[in-house]
Amino acid sequence: MINRDNKVALFVLAVTVALYLSLSSIDPEATIFIRVVIVAIGALALLLMAQGMLLKHRGKGRGTSQGPASKKSGLAWKPVAVIFSAILVYFFMAERLGFYLSAFVYFAGVVSLLDWRGLTPRKGFVRIAIAFLFVAVIYLLFSVILQVQTPRGLLI
Amino acid sequence: MAEFLHYFPEALSFPNMIALLFGVIGGLILGATPGLSPTMAVALLVPFTFHMDAATGLVLLGAVYTATVAGGAISAILINIPGAPANIATLLDGYPMAEQGKAQSALYICFISSLVGGLFGMLVMILFTPPLARIAIQFGAPEMFWIAIFGITIMAGLSSGSIAKGLIGGMFGVLISTIGYSPILGIPRFVFHDVLTGGVAIVPALIGLFAIPQVFSLGEKLGVTYARPDYKPEKGVFLKTLIENIKMVKALGIGSVVGTIIGVIPGAGGQVAGLIAYDQTRKFDKDPESYGKGKPEGVAAAESANNAMVGPSLIPLLTLGVPGSPTAAVLLGGLLIHGLFPGPDLFLKHPDVTYTFIGSLVLAQFAMCFFGILLSRYSYMVMSVSNLYMVAAVTVLAVYGTYSVQNSFDDVIVMFSLGTLMYIGSKFGFSSAPVVLGIVLGPIAEDNFLKGKMIAEASVGVWKYFFTGTANIIIILLCVGSIGYSLYGEVKMHRKSKKNKKEMS
Question: Does the interface ipTM go beyond 0.90?
Fold first, then answer.
């Protein structure tokens, strides 16, 4: 059965072929370095595939060579999905409401969404207060002292 | 040395001292916070230095780098979780000391030893960097091309468990760096969307690749809580520990020398330095069995080593423009946004900024020791910060920092997209450091490749120009050696795990 490293290698190979083909309409002089790099990636994908075949036990589990991909990571997709969606909403808000207001809404919102089961009126108040304090410190430090420009919208 | 002394008073100016103190205190807090990597902490700060004077910005980044390495020892000693990979060896004896009620003594040894090792490493850096830069200035296009490739190969081998995946990551980084207009013909490449017209800037890439995967990883670990350390500081311990620490000449000596040597080797890092120094100190001790059970010499060796490597780890960056560690790659971003191009020219064109930066790193060692000892009594507060708040705070700082450099929301989108892709990649065994290195070194590699190709076609031919000459051959051999060594390590690890499996069954 095809193992995980081989799947990764096949995917990388497919990407390199697609990238190489996408260069066909561009002047070859402008892409000679890129072509060399793409060929090198293709060769490395083949090396990865060969390693996957020779060192058979490799790549059977998740995240074969790194810590973060533990057994637990497969189960914790919900908070990741919540964070991902919250960040998209934050981006949408940032240009309309302004950086500071949207940062406050994101901060208070994401901590509440990620731990909504343990939310009590007291905890909610503490979270809003921490969000307010964090944004206020950033505003003072960067907008007032360092005078960094940020997206402006409603309020500040 | 004369230039260093000439520019040293610059490091003592009021704005630089404020940046230094802010960086050291912030770095100690960030270093002590489990779950936040020092590289990410420095990456998040890079855009804010854009609004400062170049020297002050670098002083801030250097101070944070120095302090996060030492600060990581606090959580290693108190709760058995290293704040940074560089502190892994510290917990071997640091945590047993804390369990025996000697946490205060262990923390004091940690900061005093860090100061000793850090100063030794800085001395070596000050003495050796300018002469090496004078040698490197003689390098031409082919040598600089190979140096860029060497930078990617070493990081690929050491930051990722698989050399093939590390190199693929590094090469994808190089590809990302080619997005935008071709440097010589001005033709657009990979511009699939307007957002990519100007290419991928270094700051969004750094922040996206280091901070966003960390935000998602923190989200995965929301349920994790750390034990509250049982630590009650007492009076009179400092003087007693200081005298005890001074007597550990052998451990401090081994730690400082090993840390310095490992630091100069690009990519090796504090983790390797700490573990080798710890192991050597144990071997040279009359009572090696006592290590791992709360031996103060173990803490002294590990901490002097990981701080001794801070200065030397910047030598490849300052002399060749090749970052020796992920944090050095981030510091490179800090230099680039100020229009400073690391490499041999740095000492000639910007000696004021370069020597002020080096001088501030020396001062940061003293400040780190002083504030480390002072703040260690409040460290339990840092360790009780929930991952929930870190998720929110890191995201807000990442968005804010990315936007503020060019006032561009396109940069924020690029940052988030790269970060999300990196997070997915991390699930398949890819790591951020080689990709960042590829993005940073890609333009150096492409520029020198194209320059070299043009010169070669008009003279001796491409093969002869790129593959002959002593310097070229040495650097190519280093590239091959670094890949070969990593492959050998992988095969060795494979055999070991196979043997372990057999024994278990």
Answer: no
